Amino acid sequence: MYKEYSKYLKEKYGEKVYKLPISLKETNCPNRDGNVGFGGCTYCGDEGVGFENLSANLSVKEQLLKNKEHITKKYKAKKFIAYFQSYSNTYIPIDLFKKYVNDAVIDDIVDISISTRPDCISKEYLDILKDIKTKHNIDITIELGLQTANYKTLNKINRGHTLAEYIQAVNLINSYNFNVCTHIILNLPWDTIEDTIETAKIISVLNTDFVKLHALYIEKNTILAKQYLNNEFTMLPVEDYIEKSITFLEYLSPNIAIQRIIGRAPEEYTLFSNWGMSWWKIKEMIEEKMHNENRFQGRLFNYSSHKALKKFD
Ligand code: SF4
User: Fold this and answer.
1) Helix/strand/coil (H, E, C) string of 153-216?
2) Which of 40, 204, 293, 299 sits CB 3.0–4.6 Å from 32 for a disulfide?
3) Ligand 1 within 6 A of 161 CB?
């Protein structure tokens, strides 16, 4: 029905691969510190969207080794991804960035994944990663938050960038042959189904490699929480998320692996999260509907290959 990331990893590396999250104490976000904007994206809480990490006061190596030991014991894991998760991990001085990513080169790491914003990508930082890829034969993945291709919604949620910066960042990352993973929030209340489709199409034609889909959750003490409590928008029902995720997948290139079909946030931090349901229940509902209606990833992907010329074939 859709290309699951876990299967992609198994095929590529021959076994299950586990992510080891890393937090950096120096990272912030240009959309929170006033460089690009103040206050951040309206939905962003204090953690910079990363709940499961060890303390950023531990060094990169300590965090990796601690997590690695734990996961190795629990799952007999042998291969890992070093995952720089919280905030914008390329938004730090270049020497520090160089040190941290090189510190992440430890035994059994097959990929270094770096989460950041589209307006925090430059050649100088990518060159450092290219050296690591060449010297150590480690894959590089850059995770970019886009959330939606609708630039008007991007403005509403105060992302501090539009679609253009995303396109430029993906083109540059592609020129280095790194992987790109794009984060999307499928049920932003200001987006229509047409916006969902256009988002899938843009991600596909830019040849990104992975997507992470999230439902919008409302974290306490955020701008979004205030708007929610003031009834400035309404959360649509779970059926809307299910339909949007299936439509999104139908328009998505079949080559893109899905890292997540729905996210999760701990209840104690949120006013609204996944309609009070577990993420796996919603995943099951999506898969069941896809199965019953014979819908699958890439079913409507025919727009990408000079569709108008087909009549001359
Ligand atoms: S870009 Fe990420 S870290 Fe920055 S404000 Fe938005 S969600 Fe938070």
Assistant:
1) HHHHCCCCCCHHHHHHHHHHHHHCCCEEEEEEECCCCCCCHHHHHHHHHHHHHCCCCEEEEECC
2) 40
3) no
∠ CA 11-207-306, rounded to 5°: 120
Report the residue among 42, 49, 89, 212 best suited for mutation to probe ligand 1: largest number of ligand atoms under 8 A from its CB.
49
* Domain regions of the chain by residue span: 5-295
Q: Walk across the sheet containing 257-260 and list its strands.
A: 17-22, 79-84, 109-116, 139-147, 179-185, 210-214, 257-260
101: Cβ below 6 Å to ligand 1?
no
Say whether domain 5-295 belongs to CATH 3.20.20.70: yes
Q: How far is CA 123 from the centre of its chain?
A: 21
Strands 109-116, 139-147: pairing kind = parallel
pTM of the model: 0.95
Q: Closest ligand 1 atom to the C-alpha of 39? A: 5
Protein residue with its CA nearest to atom 4 in ligand 1: 29
Q: What is the pLDDT of residues 127-172, one digit of tens each?
A: 999 999 999 999 999 999 999 999 999 999 999 999 999 999 999 9
Q: What is the mean pLDDT of the chain?
A: 94
